[in-house]
Amino acid sequence: MDNVQLLISGLANGCVYGLIALGFVLIYKATEAVNFAQGDFMMLGAFVTIGLTNTEYMGLPFWMALPISIGIMAGLGYLLDRLVIRRMFGQSQTAVVILTIALGFVIRFVAGLIWGHEPQTLQNPLAGREIAFGGLVLGMEDVAVIVVTVLLTGSLFLFFSRTKLGLAMQGASQNQLAAYYMGIPVKRVQGFIWALAGAVAAIAGILFAAKGSVDPSTGLLGIKAFAAAVIGGFGSLPGALAGGLIVGVIEPFASRYIAAGYSQIAPYALLLAVLVFRPHGLFSQVRVKKV
Amino acid sequence: MRIVFKTDYMQDIRPWKDRYQLSLYLILLAVVFAAPWVLDVFYLGELTNVLIWAIAGMGLMVLTGHTGQASLGHAAFLAFGCYSNVILLEAGVPFILAFPLAGVITGIIGALVAIPALRLHGIYLAIFTLAMSILVDDIIVLTEPWSGGVSGKYIAGIDLFGLTIDRWGTPMLFYWLVLAVTVIVTLGYINLLRSPLGRSFIAVRDSEVSAQAMGVDIARTKTISFGLSCMVTGWAGAFMGLFAGAFNNETFSVVISIELLMMIVIGGLGSIHGAFFGAIIIGFLPQFLSIAKEYVGAVFGGSTVAIPGLEFGIFGMILIAFILFEPMGIYGRWLKIRTFFELFPFYRKDMFKRQKSYLKTERLR
């Protein structure tokens, strides 16, 4: 029973990692760039929601603040693409990586200026409620996290594989120039995907802040989400979620059963192992290397 | 406008373009050699710090700037160099042996790391090295009997040729030691770039496929590049340990790795000058900010407030500005300015324009 409890809390944590990883994968899938600032985006989303709902700030009702903060983050994502990333069009991948790392520093700094460096929690209607069945006690927040993540991943997966816009995004990432010739508005598609990634980051941030406390350095969690995205294979949405769940579940079990000191290594050791033996992740999408 | 008129093939291979350029660098060398007599102890320390960062920057530049392999984990190799140097010194090995050995050990570790990393490209390599950098913190804690773990290690002065060299006691000697190593590494780097090996590094950076077609062994080239890069970084790490005097598992964190990569990007990827320019920015930015803060406090009244994270925020903004407006870094901007004057009035705006590459993925779905 103890293990089941560990498993559930691991799954809930893993879902948050999965959601951040989802943001990485979205942007990677559509623009072939990696947004190292996704974790900081999530932190910013959490703080925007805290700023809107918590009584010491604006004190809006929770359900009203939710769409507003998702909208704000989507807008920020779009603006970021419009003002910064779009100018990088045609430059190397590494340049975008370094740019987004720098962006993460700036976001952390700005969030620290506005909301301070004290850990804060989101006041929400789910806090403190519990569901009990068959001897298990589950926090409402954990259940909410798992349900929202599964729904979101599923709908994004369907969006990419079924809709015209989703296919256009894949086309734009596979060959920018060819996509242009086929009449895909590549730049607009990229703007849209950054907005989407911003919205996903806001949702991840809200769920994270509801479960625990956030402070400006929470964004460094993005590194774990990174491990998740790599383990799942960059470019696969269900893979990102699966990777997140693997990392999330490994953590509590490792800290329980492996000697202290070795336990926090577990997710990274797994990451290194995956990179060495299956360099493109467990759900690999690269089959043949073409010249 | 200066014209270099070449009459001999050796002129193409020589490290310097003409006597004028050579004399400029000799003057620079004389100035930095004489610096300890001019500067006070504080600024001498800062200059030493800049030189140490420049060595580390050159280490990363070989790998990232010239072989095109972005590494986000070089703090790990700084740590390896620092710890192996100190552990050798404590075992009674004289500094003159321990210091080069520390670099060689780090280089071998780096080459070993390169073997699994060879299969990885671009972002995957960056993530691999990032994970390694995170792990080093834990590894240092776990190997406490040798590394001292969380409580860390201390190093006082070292003995070299009968002199005691200490960062606090004899800052001038320490500065000259660092300067000597910097000069040796720089000369080695210049020579490397003239050699077939250095050319094959650049070939691998520009196109792996074409390099392979020209007969360059990609795996061997990348491994050597990793090894050389880590060796130089290890030396920088050994100096950082001596400079700081005390260090533990948190000294060489991931942030240092990221800082190092950003430093060479700001300085200018793919040039030795870039490592130095970047090191100057990294070294003097904190001082500059604290002076600026005092100045602002004095002008507008009120006390000087400490803003946590300010340094990194400003650093990030500088970096973003550089990547957007001057992707070739400070050295790239300097080249443009110099060309403007050398070719005056024939300079055109799109002289340095680079071809854009459009993206193609390797994924099938």
From TrEMBL, chain A:
| Example of a GO MF term | transmembrane transporter activity
| Primary localisation category | membrane
Membrane association type? Multi-pass membrane protein
- Spans traversing the lipid bilayer: 6-28, 35-54, 60-80, 92-116, 136-160, 191-210, 225-250, 257-277
Please name one Pfam family that this protein belongs to: BPD_transp_2
What are the subcellular locations of this protein? Cell membrane
Q: Which UniProt keywords apply?
A: Amino-acid transport, Cell membrane, Membrane, Transmembrane, Transmembrane helix, Transport
List the GO cellular component terms: plasma membrane
Q: Which GO terms describe its biological process?
A: amino acid transport
The record's PANTHER family line, in alphabetical order, gives: ABC TRANSPORTER PERMEASE PROTEIN (PTHR11795:SF451), BRANCHED-CHAIN AMINO ACID TRANSPORT SYSTEM PERMEASE PROTEIN LIVH (PTHR11795)
Protein family: Belongs to the binding-protein-dependent transport system permease family. LivHM subfamily.
This chain belongs to the protein called: Branched-chain amino acid ABC transporter permease
Organism this protein belongs to: Ruegeria sp. PrR005
TrEMBL record, chain B:
List the residue ranges forming a coiled coil, or say none: none
- State what protein this is by name: Branched-chain amino acid ABC transporter permease
Give the subcellular location. Cell membrane
Any one Gene Ontology MF annotation carried by this entry is: branched-chain amino acid transmembrane transporter activity
Native species of this protein?
Ruegeria sp. PrR005
Q: Which GO terms describe its cellular component?
A: plasma membrane
What membrane topology does this protein have?
A: Multi-pass membrane protein
Q: Which residues cross the membrane?
A: 20-38, 44-63, 70-89, 95-115, 122-142, 173-192, 224-248, 260-285, 297-324
